[in-house]
Amino acid sequence: MPSKHKNCTFILIPLCAPENAKLPTALALGSFDGLHLGHKKVIKAILKEPIGVPTVVSFWPHPREVLFGESRLRLDLPNEKTFLLEPLGIEQLVLVPFNKNLASKSAETFVEEVLVKTLHAKHIAVGENFRFGRNREGDTSTLKKIGTSLGIKISIVPIVEDNHGRLSSSRVRKALNDGDLKHAKYLLKRPYTFRGTVEKGRGLGKKIGWPTANLKIDGRKFLPSLGVYAAWASIASKKERFLAVMNMGPQPTIDPNSLSAVEVHLLDKEINLLGHELIIEPVQRIRLQKKFDNIEALSKQISSDAKLAKEILTQKL
């Protein structure tokens, strides 16, 4: 379990509210959801000439959740993001609580009160499409002007593009919606993963010869589309990985009225996983979900799915 010290949660690096951050800061400001190459270039800008504690600053919850009531699922939840930021040289992740009071502040007031007075920013880096302040009134020109007046170094990082356009979190989400894990991995420059705690299920899989670990997933996490996947599974904090076949969605044959769920069956392994946190890396979607005529037909299909999953995963060793 993460430990706590001075009001910060430590996983690999501290996850803090602004008032508990280590000061002064050199900060990369943005949502950084997915932490793709474009985001990493913004972060790299504050590491070139360290003049403060290397810090990533993001808003939580997402501004559109507060302002428009939209549900914004995250590619990386804050605790997951700490594992990704630490190897880059970032020393703390600061989450600024976003509410309507903060949304009403002018661009200049936000910089002065949050970034300067609270975070003691000496260097601020953002992407060139960054907007901030009341009604998104501030842009990079605004930030440069304010920064210059306050003696703060400002770095504006150009948008990163490939042959298909701008690298963005939206493209990653589309790839996951399409069940295209290979393209998601290309965009992220790392495998997409998610975490979940194994909870007691109804034992339906075990009754038909395919016991599964039923995962409780944070409802704010963006997951791939429904279907059956070849996947790697590992117990959090342990290095060993297990070959697995994963079902993402309801159980149309066994219980048509069941809610969508994530079930993982380890291949050639029998381990009591109840209560453990698993890290799942879906590698390839094998098929879409389907309702079968009977349990026997379902069991036969799962056997075929497991065989194909094993072939896919062993080819990638």
From TrEMBL:
Coiled coil: none annotated. Its EC number is 2.7.1.26, 2.7.7.2. It comes from the Bacteria. Residues 187-314 form the Riboflavin kinase domain. Pfam families: FAD_syn, Flavokinase. Keywords: ATP-binding, FAD, Flavoprotein, FMN, Kinase, Multifunctional enzyme, Nucleotide-binding, Nucleotidyltransferase, Transferase. SMART domains: Flavokinase (SM00904). Pathway: Cofactor biosynthesis; FMN biosynthesis; FMN from riboflavin (ATP route): step 1/1; Cofactor biosynthesis; FAD biosynthesis; FAD from FMN: step 1/1. GO terms for biological process: FAD biosynthetic process; FMN biosynthetic process; riboflavin biosynthetic process. CDD domains: FAD_synthetase_N. It catalyses: FMN + ATP + H(+) = FAD + diphosphate; riboflavin + ATP = FMN + ADP + H(+). The keyword Repressor does not apply. One of its GO terms (molecular function) is ATP binding. Belongs to the ribF family. PANTHER family: RIBOFLAVIN KINASE, RIBOFLAVIN KINASE/FMN ADENYLYLTRANSFERASE. This is Riboflavin biosynthesis protein. It comes from Prochlorococcus marinus (strain NATL2A).
